[in-house]
Design brief:
Blueprint (H helix, E strand, L loop, with lengths): L47 H33 L8 H7 L5 H26 L8 H26 L8 H14 L8 H8 L2 H17 L8 H27 L6
Helix pairs in contact: 1-4, 1-7, 3-4, 3-8, 4-5, 4-7, 4-8, 5-6, 5-7
């Protein structure tokens, strides 16, 4: 599911002077089929030990496939993050002249919520096709697609509020990825906040976030285009909620409760 085309007027054109490593083109890495597929069958109603063994084998297989799914999606997001094109503050001011900080932030949020809604609607529409084994791939595509939209939003909000993450382009991408996983802004005055994003805890946080997104996005696979409407609405709402949390952190420079 390609999502780079899910753009709108509020977000402005691509800019190659991005604050993260700009996307250089070329084929997209494979996103697909290592995720959840149909689980093996078995006599779940069998009597005695055989029935219990069948149920235990099914749970083990399901657990293994879930871990494969989470790992594959997490690695795809980590791979994608440094290539998300992010406009710096100067570029944003040029593209949206005359706007104050909050007005510019609102413009970015409006574009991102439309982008994530477009991804959800596309996945919901694709789900009406009678190909059940493709559903895990559709879920993975949606999570990765929305993550890209939201990572761009988080990075550009940090630019707008004058709180760009420190380090080189890849380090900033990793810091914003940690911000996405925890749904919090980067706190520049406390280096531990950034160092946590750089450490081994990142993948654990990503897996937790992906699990939450997967459960949240399951209704998007409802057939007859109902899933398209559900996906568009849910993604729009959740991206708006994420943006408000990040903006609250960036306004104060200190995450609530810290």
């Amino acid at each position: 599911m390609a999502v780079e085309g899910a753009r709108d007027d509020e977000r402005g054109p691509h800019d190659r002077s991005a604050s993260l490593v700009p996307y250089q083109g070329g084929p997209e890495p494979h996103t697909g089929g290592t995720a959840l597929s149909a689980l093996p069958g078995g006599d779940l109603n069998g009597a005695g030990g055989e029935g219990r063994r069948g149920r235990a084998a099914l749970w083990r297989a399901g657990g293994r496939r879930a871990r494969v799914f989470l790992h594959a999606v997490a690695e795809r997001i980590i791979e994608t993050a440094p290539r998300v094109p992010v406009r710096d503050l100067e570029t944003l001011r040029t593209q949206f002249p005359g706007l104050g900080t909050e007005e510019l932030a609102e413009k970015l949020v409006a574009g991102a919520t439309k982008g994530s809604a477009t991804v959800g609607a596309g996945v919901g529409a694709a789900a009406m096709l009678p190909v059940p084994p493709a559903m895990p791939a559709e879920l993975a595509a949606e999570i990765v697609g929305v993550a890209g939209v939201e990572l761009k939003l988080i990075a550009e909000l940090h630019e707008v509020y004058g709180r760009r993450a420190p380090g080189n382009a890849r380090e900033r991408a990793t810091a914003y990825l940690g911000s996405w996983a925890s749904e919090r802004g980067i706190e520049l005055t406390r280096p531990a906040t950034v160092s946590v994003a750089m450490g081994g805890e990142l993948r654990s946080r990503l897996r937790q976030q992906i699990t939450k997104r997967t459960l949240r996005n399951l209704p998007n696979l409802t057939p007859f285009l109902i899933g398209a409407a559900v996906g568009a609405f849910a993604n729009h709402r959740e991206t708006a909620k994420l943006a408000e949390r990040i903006r609250a952190d960036l306004r104060t420079g200190r995450p609530p409760g810290a």
